[in-house]
Amino acid sequence: MPLPWLREPLLRALRLERSHALLLHAPQDAGQFDLALTLAQAWLCEHPGQAPCGRCSACRLVHQRSHPDLRIVVPEALRVRFEWLAEDDPLLRASAKPSREIKIEQVRDAIEWTQRSASSTRGRSLVIHPAEALNAHSASALLKTLEEPPGNLRIVMAGSDPQRLLPTLRSRVQRLRVEMPDAKQAKAWLSEQGVAVQTDRALAVCGGSPLATMMLLEAGFDDAALAALPSAVARGDAQGLLGKPVPLVVDLLQRVAHDAMARAAGAGARYFDDASLPAGATLSALAQWQRELLRVAAHDEHPWHAALLVEALVTNGARCWPRTATPARRGGDHSLHSAR
Question: What is the pTM of this model?
Answer without folding.
Answer: 0.85
